[in-house]
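[Amino acid chain]
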Amino acid sequence: MKKLSFILLAGLAISFFSCDNKDDIDEIKPEKQVVLNNDIGTVISTEETSEAVMEVADYEVDLFSFMESQYTEPTNTKQGHVNRYGQFCREWQRYKSEKMPEVSIEFGEDGRFPMTITIQYDSIELNNDKIIDGAIKIEMTAAPWTNGAVREITMDLVIDSVEINGEKRVEFTGEKGVSKKWEITSDITFTYPDGTELFRSAERTREWISGLDTKWDLSDDKVQITGKVTCVDTEENEYTKEIDEENPLIRIGTCRLIVQGTVIYSQNGKEFAKFDYGDGECDNLATYTYTNEEGEEVSKEVVIGKHKRNKKNN
């Protein structure tokens, strides 16, 4: 996985979100005190943008993993399958043009598994106008809904202008035919156009709580997400983001953004902000709340999932 060099990069003066940096803090601060080298808005905006692009990548992983039963032959014996396997996802109306990702399949030496799925993107445009470049490699120990099935995922992507590099492990802990639930760990680095990096180490549980019986109908799909993320950025901000157990994150099949839930930001065990995704409506608005230097509680509405880059001319 790509390694960070926080000491070399900590001197970056320009924030991606063009917010004022605060002076470096040299003295040792006591525990239970929040010390951030950027204002809270910059910290939250950077993290929530990473959350949005990660959701795009996760959708790609699920889409091609869940088509496992359609992969009948390895692509090294019939190169035509590279294009044909990519065409399967047309039924999901995921991609905007005729240009599709190239999908290659490798089977295990003694049977179907372990199966390796490699997806190559060359400026592939989604129906929501986002653009993906790079590659995803998925190593599967068994079919997706098999008890204990594990997916080891390696990502080397650019989604719009944000680079994603790292590894993720997804284990199916539900019961086949009854429930769909996954335990997920990941170590991912996000790199922004100005060179700013954000490293995220995550532990999450993702459970499909609605729409299990309607394979081709996305309108009733609902996924619940719980867990926490530890973040370190190149401004040497280190903090934890934990999903509120009483108000977990919710994704629905007809919206590309998280539509509900609250996450709590903390450092040294002290909360410094909350981020509220709303009440279930599919929109690009959320609210974050924090306490300013005067001790006043402040709430601000922000736009999420807005990060884009210009399409390539070719």
Q: What stands out?
A: The helical segments are 6-9, 40-65, 80-87. Residues 160 and 309 are 5 Å apart (CA to CA). The chain has three helices and 14 strands. The two ends are 30 Å apart (CA to CA).
